[in-house]
């Protein structure tokens, strides 16, 4: 019990979406391996990483999918969304455009994914407060209107990354239990 051969009670697929360079891959690296790189290369090929954790005495394997540098409009294929029970919609708080594109990503997500998918809006790079271009209140209001969870994170400083993933995973867990 509790060793590597422990049985997995649930596998939850969660997809990361949002414009290029907002920090999706670094958020995943932080969550899956507690790593961060300042000069991360654009992701090549669809890939996912997993981390197994315990929620309410059950072992949950989080399978987190990262886009393959396919962030151009409509380039993310439906296979990417297939079977996803959670999604993180990421923008960069220092780049207004990445926030302005969120409604497009949300529409794409809603047209491809299951209607009960759990979604969190994430404003990443909160460590760059002096370069902020998206007020927290704007994002909070948008999230509320759309019925999304919302958090600001810093993959660099490891602020709220765990919290953001756990918010999604716990909500998924609660909906299947
Ligand atoms: P992706 O294209 O969305 O996967 O973005 P990446 O994860 O590749 O990150 C793009 C760039 O932003 C890289 O240079 C990262 O080091 C940097 N970056 C990612 N997260 C943060 C963060 O929280 N703070 C800061 N200052 N830089 C970050
Ligand atoms: Mg990437």
Automatic annotation (TrEMBL):
What organism is the protein native to? Answer: Salix viminalis (Common osier)
Q: What keywords were assigned to this record?
A: GTP-binding, Lipoprotein, Membrane, Nucleotide-binding, Prenylation
The residues forming a coiled coil are none
Protein's UniProt keywords contain Thylakoid: no
Q: Which family does it belong to?
A: Belongs to the small GTPase superfamily. Rab family.
A Gene Ontology molecular function term for this protein is: GTPase activity
Q: What topology in the membrane does the UniProt record assign?
A: Lipid-anchor
Q: Would you tell me the protein name for this molecule?
A: RAS-RELATED PROTEIN RABA4A
Please state where this protein is localized.
Answer: Endomembrane system
The record's GO CC annotations read: endomembrane system
